[in-house]
Amino acid sequence: MKFLYYLFIFGYFKDNIPKTLLSITGISLGIALFVSTQINSWRAEQSVLDQMIGYSSEKFSGRYVANNQNQGAKDSFLKEIESQIPENIRLEPEFQTKGTITITKDHIQSIPIIGKDILLSSQIMPLPKVGKNKIPKYFISQSLSEKLRTQKTKTNLTICEKEITILEDDYQIIPTEGIFLVMDITRLQSLCYQKNRITSIWLIHDENSNVRSSLENTKSPDWTYESKELILERAGIALGSLKINLTIVSLVSVLISFFMVSNMFTGLYLSRKREFGILLSIGSNKTNNFILFLVQAIVIGAFGGIVGILFGIFIANTNFLTTVNTITDINQIRSYRQIPVSIIISGFFISVFGSILASIYNSYKTFQILPIDLIRERDVSNSKFFLGLSHRKTFILSILFIITGIVIGLVSFAKQILPGMLGVGFVILGFVILNFLCIPYLIRILDKTLSKFHFPPAAEIGLKEIQIEPWKNGLTASTIMLSTSLVFTLTSLTDSYEKSLIRWVDGENKADYSLINEKKLNSGEPGVPVSLFETLTMDPNFSSVEPFYIDSKFIVNGKYYTLHVFNFTSNYNKNDLIVSKNLCFLDQICKGNSITINTESNSRVSMKIQDEKDHFFSERGTIMMDYSYFQKNYKIKYLNSIRISKNKNLSEKETTNLLQNITRKFDLKYINQTELKKLYMEGMNQVFSILDTLKISALIISILALTTSLVYFIREKSQLLAGLRAIGMDSFQMFQMVYCQALFLVSFGIFSGILNSLILSPIVIFGINRNAFGWILDFQYPLTLVVKLPILIPLITFVICLIPFYFLKQMQISKELKYE
After folding, report:
1. Whole-model pTM?
2. Which burial class, exposed, middle or buried, applies to 356 when counting CB atoms under 10 A from its CB (0-12, 13-18, 19+)?
3. CA–CA separation, 780 vs 498, rounded Å?
4. 385-412, pLDDT tens digit by residue?
5. Separation CA 256–CA 253 (nearest Å)
6. Per-residue pLDDT tens over the stretch 208-222
7. Nearest C-alpha neighbor of 726 from the set 819, 807, 814
8. Any idea what DSSP says for residue 94?
9. What's the Cα-to-Cα distance from 735 to each of 279, 715, 799, 811, rounded to whole Å?
10. CB of 206 within 8 A of CB of 88?
């Protein structure tokens, strides 16, 4: 039996290396996308979690955080809680702020600066370098050390507006992921003029214990207790929607690859059907045939999974795909190199389980084979089609699936994308069934139409062969349909985002110019001095000067939101807030509600929501505050930008000359409205760059699917093709036959994909995207891409046909026509 398995499975692989490699490649591409997106999603979440906790140890169980994170709170609170904690709990005070390092002349990177008691910290084990008798001044992460090595001899670090030079002998490397720097807490407090103030108190335990119960009653107006579970939940919420959407898109790519695999197994079954009949004739049984085919699928799935996992890890580690949103730091994400074992196991399981599902129908067909199939030319056809239903009932069922999908997919349900996903699933299933039904009818219509013209007989033969096997060719067309639909749907999504973003910029920023700090732009840190804004407001050369400040990690009720600070118009109350409509939809913080926020000057303040407005910026929701009120409660020295409108009495050249003088003096940059839009577009493109990669991958998978289908057609029909060549069909006619087959499947699949995307795009934009992020986008559909298809389809088909035609040319007539 072992020899039979080896001969049937590995013997086939050995004799059909190109076809096997195509199948494994298709699986591996889908799995690689899944693995790489999951790794990057995990790294993004890990970076948020580390920045929340401060790169903690596994023994961390909770913490007290100062309500005023910018200035911290008095460390006298340590004594209050010290008497209330269990013996096995140790308190570790921490003062955290942000610093910047100069990577290149035009690039400054923001990093967390963490002040700790170096001798007591469980995170750092101060093992001095060999030959040293003193503890280093700084402890830095492995990734930060790699960045510092790019500097020549020293690095300039700016902390609390003080520039410090770090020499190589000043620091020791901590083998920890992330980008951060740790230094003595008293020194950091001194540098920031925050003596005896801390931002958090860690609770570190050496054994498992329930800390929460003993600390819940310890309250202070300046401190808030957060358990480890609460912080983990908050980190998950912060990136939950993004992770879900990436998982969905990557799984659609996996689905496309398994449609290809299912098509491959259909061809494999047809090409080996006689072998199963022979096995039955020499004493095997139906169960052995079933298991034999299933094991072959598992082997291909396992190989594809292993290759896909390795390729996915390679993609993730080369930063080819990066998960980016408004709360994550791309440099922090890229500093992680750990690969969670759960993602690898999931990728392998999906690969094997998907291969089993893709082959189960054909495995069942091997169970039904009889020895008489050795002499039967093809299966006896009947009028039944799907689940034993007639063609008419199957057509009605497919339409019902599509209608049900549309209804369910457009259900409005905040933070729930399950209805949208069910809707997408129903629509795809309905279209797949329609593809199987439509192929024979379309071939008949084409045959009647072309019979009126002088059409090459070779092309007619190719089309007739498609009509004979609607299931196999329907799978190929469905693979192309899914890829086309994915491309058009994602393009529709990104185009809709682009149009909505441009509309938002035009509506929110009517200023002529914006002053920005280009060096700090990548870090997201404000870098335009408040003092400059105050000076410019008195300058008569500008008609209006407005501030703009962003805090992407503004905490309300334990959740992260984005705070925008600017001058409210006269019709708004300066002492109340405005919220974005997506915040109201997602978290029910709406007009008329009140929220309590932590401020620097007045501790906790309750503020009323006076209005909601479309605000296309944060996927978590945006809170808007007037600058005059912000000044009363917060102390900042830098803005993100200053918006300037020119004076009508000055020419544009005079205005730009004034701005050039300002930017030179303060090392800033001014941009006009067009450049501002471009800046926002670059940020959006960075977020959606992963979708572009997924689109390309889907197209590659569909091309592989069609190529594999044609290769299996040549293998299965080898005797027929050899006979045609023997009676005089030349190479050009053979190519015509293959080309017409491919052209029909590509055209049919793309047309079906366009129709499918016309239904899926609204579901994705107004269903899934609306429920996940709360936005109502301006719908756009890529009609320009549709117009280009009549030119692209024949060219794509020609390229696809080259490999199958090569195998056709290599066919030996004498070998194929020889009967044993």
Report:
1. 0.76
2. middle
3. 9
4. 555 567 788 889 999 999 999 999 999 8
5. 5
6. 555 554 555 566 777
7. 814
8. E
9. 35, 15, 12, 13
10. yes
